[in-house]
TrEMBL record:
UniProt KW keywords: ATP-binding, Kinase, Membrane, Nucleotide-binding, Phosphoprotein, Transferase, Transmembrane, Transmembrane helix, Two-component regulatory system
Descriptive protein name: histidine kinase
One Gene Ontology CC term in the entry: membrane
Superkingdom of this protein's organism: Bacteria
Catalytic reaction list: ATP + protein L-histidine = ADP + protein N-phospho-L-histidine
Disordered: annotated segments: 372-391
Amino acid sequence: MPELRRFFGSPREITYSIVAVVPGLVLGTTLLCLLGVFLVAAVTQVGLILLVAVLAFARATGAVHRGLLRGLLGMDIQAPPARKRSRGFVAAIGSAITDGDSWRASAFAIAYIPISLIVFVVSVGIRAYGLAGLTYPLWWRALDEDGRRGIGVAGDFRLDTWPLALLTAVVGIALLAAGAWSTRGLLTLVVGPMARALLGRGRLADRVDVLEETRTLAVQDSAATLRRIERDLHDGAQARLVAVAMALAGAKDQLARAPGDTPELTRGRELVDSALDGSRTAIRELRDLVRGIHPPALNDGLDVALETLASGYDTLPVTLRVDLPVRPPEALETIAYFCAAELLANAAKHADATRAEVAAYEKGGALHLSVRDDGRGGARPHAGGGTGLAGLSERVRTVDGRLLIDSPDGGPTTITVELPLGP
């Protein structure tokens, strides 16, 4: 059976050749007419609205063709990403005009009009002649034209003998095979590559997906590496420094109880005191470094970390609102926390604010962190004075986020951080 299907063509290929001609002609011709109407009305606002509808229709046409290719030929073409919705008439028109996936689907629908006819004629027409030739020995004697049987081929030459009828059957088999091979060639060499190029995801979209995935893995790996460094410093170097400080404190007590007051003993006490002070300073700096890498409060979630952060400001009352149904990824939590810490520090040190509000919530598939203060305003991404907004903007962009600043002179200031949560 597989050999016969390979020789005469599979039923799926035949079915596709017959079925696909209907949407190929109807949808392609309709889209072509709509584009013609758009060209006539392009100078008016109605024409622009029609363009949005035409491109949406083109996307739907592409979905129909992808469904036929997948269902009948097993050709799985990944659909392009959905067009992003834009607010406002001008933004919607601009988004439609620059939507390359819709234009490529339009090109396929129009180009497929003649191709569908060619595939149909090659598949059905050649096979029809082949089937007629194959069955010719069964019905050639039933033909009667002026007392002569068989089909006339050229002039008086007629296929009116059994050898000629059998030879016609052999020719019919060859035509059936030629129809199958021609159909398979058209589907494999023309329809398939054209569909993948125009109906699937473009190379740029695939490249963007790969880069986004690579960036996500890099961010996650960076977060995991920082956590590992934080644990090693906390459980290793910090613990050893604490042990050294305790040993130095014990040595200091022993030297303090030692009798006598010789220069060597005095010098030893001074060295131990200096070493003990240095170890305590190193422990404090190491603890600050560990907290800067990954605050311990984040181990319990962003909500707990923000509560701890807000409660640490005595001179700046902070109102906190957290609405996160699902815990965000660790890397996003870390970025959001450090953004909140930097923004609250700016409000307390540079903006002369008397109160602040912090809100963390999920909206539109993104983590939103909003910090509002009643300070003097005038915050700018590249302003001086140590605001650090440029650094925050760079940190947020590593995960394709945005830093939105609303800070008129005289205040109030509202800075919102948007961090896409991803799939």
